[in-house]
Amino acid sequence: MEFFERFAVPHPSIAIYASMVAIGLTMVAIVAGLTYFKKWGYLWREWLTTVDHKRIGIMYLISALIMLFRGGVDAIMMRAQLSAPENTLLDAQHYNEIFTTHGVVMIIFMAMPFIFAMMNIVIPLQIGARDVAFPRLNALSFWLFFMGAMLFNISFVVGGSPDAGWTSYFPLAGNELSTSVGTNYYMIAIQISGIGSLMTGINMITTILKMRAPGMTLMKMPMFTWSSFIANVIIVFAFPVLTIALALGTMDRLFGTQFFTIDNGGMDMLWANLFWVWGHPEVYILILPAFGIYSEVISTFSRKNLYGYKSMVASMVIISLMSFLVWAHHFFTMGQGALTNSIFSITTMAIAVPTGVKIFNWLLTMYKGKIEITTPMLYSLLFIPLFTLGGVTGVMLAMSAADYQYHNTMFLVAHFHNVIIPGVVFAMLAGLTYYWPKMFGFMLNERIGKWTAWLLSIGFLLAFMPMYITGLDGQARRMYTYSESTGFGPLNMVSFVGAIIMAIGFVLIVYNVYYSVRYASRDISADPWDARTLEWATHNPVPEYNFAVLPEVKSSEALWDAKKKGHVLFKGEYEEIHMPNNSGAPFIMSIIFFVLGFSLIFSLWIPAIISIIGVFAFMTHRSFEQDHGHHISVKEIEETETKMRGAK
Amino acid sequence: MKGKWILLSVFFTLATVLTGCERLLVLDPKGPQAARQAQDIMLSIGIMSGIVLVVFALLIFILLKYRASKQRPDYEPPHMEGNIWVEAICVGIPVIIVAYLSFVSVQSNYIVEATPQGYEDKEPLVIYASSSDWKWHFSYPEENIETVNYLYIPTDRPIEFKLYSYGPITSFWIPQLGGQKYAMSDMVTTLHLAADVPGEFMGRNANFSGKGFAENTFEVTAMSPTKFVEWVDEVKETADPLTEEKFDQLLEPGHLGRMTFTGTHLDFMPPPNHNHGSSDDESDGESHNEDENQSEHSEH
Q1: How far is B230 from chain A (nearest CA, A)?
Q2: Is residue A589 part of a domain?
Q3: Rounded distance, CA A369 to CA A385, Å?
Q4: Does B171 share its domain with B59?
Q5: Domain end residue (candidates: B54, B80, B112)
Q6: Mutation test of the interface with chain B: which of A95, A349, A400, A404, choosing the one with the most B Cβ atoms within 10 A?
């Protein structure tokens, strides 16, 4: 029995037991459903083993949406707990676990995969390639992320959730002060999915550098590809720092090293520094692809080319360099002195300049345009004012002396939600709506889509604007409760109402998918938005090989050239197309990683050692494997193309 | 676009609340450091409001003028490349704003990291503020007394807080006297504050430190120097001495009310004396004389 005690949750509650039952029932339902409808083979052949970038993108998308709801439920519970003074809905321990998992889930398991979803679906199409450079590695990236996410998500029913905040500052996260396995989950699950992110970074950089269509020089790449390229370069430089930090933290927790401990020369500030050397560039990893989506959407629906293409690229390159020079602004109050604070204060403010340039470029793109307000455009139009608010409060926070007053307060919480929600989440929802026909061959309902955008915006303002005020009034973040005499009550209630409105908005997204699956017309053209870039030059949904004939492009708006200037995109006859084979290896290898992670979390050394051997066995096998892919014959291409055209 | 007007009005309401509401703690300073910070905050709110207004105005103008429904059906938007002058303005004006704010920010950094202005010629009162789960210990080496979870300070003297922690990283914060600073287990940080007027202020740990974090607060009372001396004398007469045994009990995780002792824990449990980086007194690091070497840790 002693062996099994370690898997018990240290602070159980009815909600956790209910979740256990719900998770169990869901799993039984999935297995039963798959068996009953005889879908195991379909699932394995078409999804679990796929190396197709579009399908991997869709799997990222589904995972991101599921995680959005997991993180969203955490958020609602937090806002509910704080909606009234001295509330007893949650106790301190549960509240701590919930805000920790909310942060980790939203950043690592929602925003990141959402961005990878967009990159996977869009980049190869936008540059006229047939897949990414390393399709099987791409599948491995996805499955590692997925297993990391699953591992993290079982923490609250097996062994207990991490409770030291999403930043997991030591020594609080160390063995002395966090005795449950929660922080082990944090260290290992993020590590596993981080390996996936790093590999995606390498994969996307190679794809963009080596696989562009003839004629597409770097300065003729569509803006989303440019922004993703830069984001991936940041990934490749930033994620190794996280890998090291997590490895050191894991060793402290599992093997008794003393990197970040209280005694024996451990340095708690070292963790904070390493974490934010990754953490701040991470912010730009999220926001740059979002900017890319907005650039595509705003240009398309203004019916005008993107203003200041070169300055857009230049500003992103500058942002990427500067993103590595600002990390210490996350702890101006650590006592590093006036000089250090001054340097980081200036670099932080300076990074606002290239970001401002982008805002003005979007405004100038719309200037003299012919603005059509579709759902993706509505998100973009709401993004500009809301993000500007978040941006200027960022400049306020950058004033380090004043930051002594903002730091660790709700003002800070309001700021980073104010940049991430209108910046990243709205962009992803705009991208989701914009690229939905690309993925599935039908459009999402515009009316429900616009309702969603408005509800999210109004909910957002109600939820987060009051936090700026309570922050200045002394409400520290991460407090599970407060007394009535503080006067924080009414404004926190407003936040709670805002959170509920946002929740309704998110539920509407699901309803929109359901509604559109049932009622939307499947009879759409390849170019339903009257777009400008190359991804809209092929069919909806996209055939396996993307383009029957590889396109030749002249500018960053290849499709627009074809539509308005008579440029011929596709020259030549069909030829046999060489495509990669599906493989079960990434999926199985990731399951082994899951077992490895789980064993490490609970210090089960024998299964851990066996799974490490398993991982290396797979890698060795892959090194000696001869797999030359397969060819799609001209006849097959002709058949598919005729069928696709017929569907128009 | 009605929505934009809603956004605008929300913003204005916010701005009015922020500026008009005297009761917001951070904007109701009672000491020179907090006053400087509040001044910086109001200055940046002012300048940033200008930027927000410009962006909102441009957006509303563009949306009103260039909606597809406002234009001829056959209108073809022009192809526009970047214009060097337009972009120079888009870069230039933010650069000027950022340069000005940086200038103010650097000045303020040196002000809040030094003895408060107006108090330079007075001998600072040194108070060691250390945190343990989830309470604050205040040691007055000069007066040789120690309190738990409450802090009495005189109004006429600058206060030099020496901060460290017996557990997780905490952050010592008295919003009305000045911004916060971290207290860590392996080094001592210095926070300079002063109270201009007598009064009672909220103080707390602002950095998440585990289960008991929410209640990790303390009360600050600023009083005239004579009253302060009276209080110290009274403590010396009435309070029990702080023994090592007693202090070990106090360090146990949990919450405690106000407590008062004669003597300080500094004698038997000196503060950490490592100085990781950033410090100019590395050579003193080996010394166990806690008072002198730590006071030099502050940056000048």
Answers
A1: 30
A2: no
A3: 19
A4: no
A5: B112
A6: A404
Dihedral over Cα of A116, A117, A118, A122: its sign:
positive
What angle in degrees, to the nearest 10, is found between the helix axes of A375-398 and A268-302? 140
Q: Are strands B217-223 and B150-154 parallel, antiparallel or unpaired?
A: parallel
CA distance B30 to A37: 71
Strand, coil or helix: B58: helix
Identify the band that residue A540 occupies on the pLDDT scale cut at 50, 70 and 90.
confident
Q: Which two tokens stand for residue A118?
A: 């967009």
Confidence of residue B67 (pLDDT cuts 50, 70, 90): very high
| Assembly ipTM | 0.91
Task: Determine phi and psi for B183, rounding to 5 degrees.
Answer: -115, 125
In this structure, the answer to whether residues B29 and B70 fall within a common structural domain is yes
Residue finishing a domain among B112, B145, B178: B112
Do B98 and B134 reside in the same domain of the chain?
no
Alpha-carbon span A257 to A14, nearest angstrom: 37
Q: Does A12 touch chain B (CB under 8 A)?
A: no
Q: Indicate which CATH number applies to the domain containing B276.
A: 2.60.40.420
DSSP letter, residue A409: B
Enclosing domain of residue A16:
11-48
| Same domain? B85 vs B145 | no
Phi, psi of A479 (to 5 degrees): -85, 130
Asked whether the predicted pLDDT for residue B280 surpasses 60, the reply is no
* Contact predicate A323/A348, CB 8 Å: no
Is residue B133 located within the same domain as residue B277? yes
B193 within domain boundaries: yes
Q: What is the DSSP letter of A476?
A: B
Cβ of residue A598 closer than 8 Å to a chain B Cβ: no
Range of the domain at B193: 125-295
Cβ contact A533:A296 at 8 Å: yes
Q: Could you tell me if residue B117 is inside a domain?
A: no
User: Does the pLDDT of residue B279 top 70, yes or no?
Assistant: no
- Residue A38 — left, alpha, or beta (φ > 0 → left; ψ -120 to 50 → alpha)? left
Alpha carbons A138 and A19: distance in angstroms, whole number: 32
Instruction: Say whether the peptide bond before residue A541 is cis (omega within 30 degrees of 0).
Output: yes
- Quick: pLDDT tens for A283-293: 999 999 999 99
Residue A464 shares a structural domain with residue A550: yes
**Residue A38, in any domain of the structure:** yes
Nearest chain B Cα distance for residue A481, angstroms? 6
